Structure formats: structure tokens, C-alpha cells
Amino acid sequence: MATWGFKGGLKWFNSGFVENKEVKIDVINELDREFELPDGCLIVPGLVDFHCHVWAPGALVGVTDIEYLSSGVVAVVDAGTFGYDGWANADRLWQNSQIEIRSWLSVLPEGLTLHPNPNPTKPENISMERLLETASLSGQRLYGFKVRLGQRGVENDRGLLTVAREAAEKSGLKMMVHLTDTSLTIDEVLDTLRPGDILTHPYHGKKGNILDAKGKVATCFLDAVEKGLLLDVGQGSKHFSWKVFKQAISEGLKPHFISSDLVRNTWKKPPVDDMSYIVSRFIAGGLSKDEVFSSLLNNATDFMGIKIDPTKNLVVLQPDYSKISYSDSEDILEGNIRYSPVIQIFNGKSIFVADYLSK
After folding, report:
1. Residues 101 and 186 reside in one and the same domain
2. Pairing status of strand 230-232 against strand 33-36
3. Residue 88, Cβ neighbours under 10 Å: how many?
4. Could you tell me which InterPro entries the record lists for this protein (predicted)?
5. For residue range 242-299, what is the model confidence (pLDDT) as tens digits?
6. 39 and 56 share a domain?
7. Residue 55 neighbours by CB distance under 10 Å
8. pLDDT tens for each residue of 137-191
9. Residue 344's CATH number
10. CA atoms of 59 and 87, how far apart (whole Å)
11. Cis amide leading into 109 (omega within 30)
12. Cα distance between residue 176 and residue 148, in whole Å
């Protein structure tokens, strides 16, 4: 057993960053080391991705748990990759992962195992019995039911919301609703949701977004958030607009969760890339470092019911202040900050140390 010491930078403490004089952490099968960190480095226990897609057999859309870990992520929530036809098998695999994996159950039996899906299951053909049976066997690993709107039209969207609401009421679990591209009014979507439910992709710029005809955040939406509706960024490649985000932030509508919505096709590719890229985007976009990391290390872990032990887990994020363009599906935000993980210790083991720090 060795001890690694880290001096300099800022370290996460409770709900914000403080000046780091020295952090010491025990590391298995290593020699004692001391690190003098470059200015501006952030020390956190790990990154948490509240909305992503995790690989398991039958779902090529997902990114593997090892890939998440390699990017500094120690806990994730799979956002409905599987429905009841495949969730149990995926969950058995995920329970054996090194990282913490929790999930939402797609109300579609096939989930996203076929994506894009030209013929998703119709609401009338979804088995409520199987939704509830799957939920009853999930323990604390399943948070509720995920609805992806915008695939087949208004009546289909309305039916999916009805199915998910009934399943949530009968199981005592929650709903997560993917907002992008629906032709339902925001009022009707919100009527289905309850305090503690999740609306993901709220800042998208496509039809069915949260702005009214005057370009302001709809009053009903502001009211729903005030009553306890939770907002998840769910960045993705097509589900985020800087214009909508900036307007929402100007009206005090900040996200509860900052997440990637990573899939295989967006892994290590802008505008998603990985979680260190995502946190950098939103710091460049006007949120403070404390706000961004609190969404990961406080809000997400509290919702998930997990703890990340800082005596065994550490990630060092180093800033690059070069000019960088953060695109969305419509626009570009010019920034000058990009954090990248350069050291990770996970469960007391060294995962990686950047080459230049190894010298």
C-alpha cells in the first residue's frame, strides 16, 4: 500500500471547490508519490453521468462500462436502453460492473435495442403486467419508466405517457420523459408529470420545446419546476440548443442534472464526447464550476442513493484554456475552457496517470 499526495489546484468539498493544500490517498500496488498539480486543476472523487446508454448484449447503441471508467466516470444511469424484453439480463451484467450502474426502464418492450426504430411498439400493445413485474424485481436499481416522445405522432405520444403514468402510480416509481420533437403541447406533457419526475432534453430547440410564442419560458413550465419537476440536460447530438438554454438560464431555470446522453455514435465525438467535455461545455456556457459539479456530485448521487468515497476515489481534471467551439444542433458557443482527466484512482487502485505526470 502506497500513499499518493496531491498539492495545488481546487478540491471538491461538500458542495463547492476550495483551495487544495494537500490531498492524500492510499493506492494499492503502487509506490509513494507526490504530485504538484498545474494551476486550475480540479480534484473530484469521480464523474457521474445521470443520463447515458450502457452497453449490454443486444444493445449496440450503448457505451461499455470500461469506457466510461476510462474517462473518469464512476457512476451512471442508463436512460431506457432496455424495455422489459431485455432489462433483466442487462441488469444482471451491470450488477457485476466495477462502476455503479442504475437505470430507467423504457416503456417500449424493445427499448433502444433497435435505434432508430421504424416501427416501435404501439401503446396498446405494451404489457402493463410485464412493466410492473420488471419493476417489482428491480430492487433499488430501477428508478422508473422512460418515455421517448416524438417517434410516431400525437396519439402515440399521448398513449405512451398514459401507460408510463399508470405504471408509475401502480409501482410507486417515477417517470422520465424525453421531450424532443413531440407535437403535444408542453401543457399536456406536464399534466402527466409529478413532482420528482424527470424531464430530459428540456433545452432542445425543436418542436415541442419549453418556449412560448414570445420566446419566453412557458409559465406552466416555470410553475411545474417550482413544484418539483426535475430537469436533466441530456446533451445528446440533437437535443440541446444554446439559444433555449440561455433564455431559460436568464429566467432562473437551471438544470438539476447535467448529463451526456452518450451513445456509441457520439462517444469521443463533439458535441457529446465524454463527461469531462460535457462539464466543460456548461462552464463555458455560463454556469459556475460549483453549479456544474454539484449537479453531478450532489444532485445525481442523492437521486441515485449512492456515495462516492473520496478516501478511495479521485480524479484530477486539468484545464486547457485554448479557444474551443461548443456546438449544438443549431448554433455554436465559443469558449476557452476544456477540462480533461489526467489522473484517476478508483476504489484505491490507479486507473491512469497522464504520461507527462509520470516523469
Report:
1. yes
2. unpaired
3. 13
4. Deacetylase_Atu3266-like, Metal_Hydrolase
5. 999 999 999 999 999 999 999 999 999 999 999 999 999 999 999 999 999 999 999 9
6. no
7. 22
8. 998 899 999 999 988 889 999 999 999 999 999 999 999 999 888 889 999 999 9
9. 2.30.40.10
10. 11
11. no
12. 9
Closest-CA residue to 101 (of 62, 58, 65):
65
Q: Which amino acid is at 291?
A: E
> Beta strand pairing status for 2-7 and 33-36?
parallel
The H or E element spanning position 169 is helix 154-171
C-alpha Rg value of the chain to the nearest Å: 20
Answer yes or no: is pLDDT of 21 > 70: yes
Instruction: Give the domain extent around 27.
Output: 2-44+312-357
Residue 254: CATH number of its domain: 3.20.20.140
Residue type, 333: L
**Helical residues (DSSP H) of 96-144, grouped into ranges:** 128-136
C-alpha torsion sign, points 273, 274, 280, 282: positive
Same domain? 200 vs 347: no
What span, in angstroms and rounded, lies between the C-alpha atoms of 75 and 51? 10
What is the model's pLDDT at position 359?
53
Q: Are residues 196 and 155 in the same domain?
A: yes
How far is 82 from 107, CA to CA, in rounded Å?
9
Number of domains in the chain: 2
DSSP state, residue 143: E
- Which band of pLDDT confidence, cut at 50, 70 and 90, is reported for residue 358? low
Rounded Cα distance between 347 and 308, Å, is 9
For every residue of 21-64, DSSP letters joined together read S-EEEEETT---EEEEPPTT-EEES-EEEEEE-B-BTTBTTSBP
- Largest separation between any pair of C-alpha atoms in the chain: 63
Q: Does one domain contain both 205 and 166? A: yes
Residues 230 and 107 in one domain: yes
Are 263 and 339 contained in the same domain? no
- Final residue before a domain boundary, out of 262, 278, 304: 304
- How would you class 354 by CB atoms within 10 Å of its CB: exposed for 0-12, middle for 13-18, buried for 19 or more? middle
CA-nearest of 211, 299, 213 to 255 is 299
d(CA 45, CA 319) in angstroms, rounded, equals 17
CB 104 within 8 A of CB 176: yes
Lowest mean pLDDT across 57-61, 204-208, 230-234:
204-208
Backbone φ and ψ for 201, nearest 5 degrees, come out as 65, 40
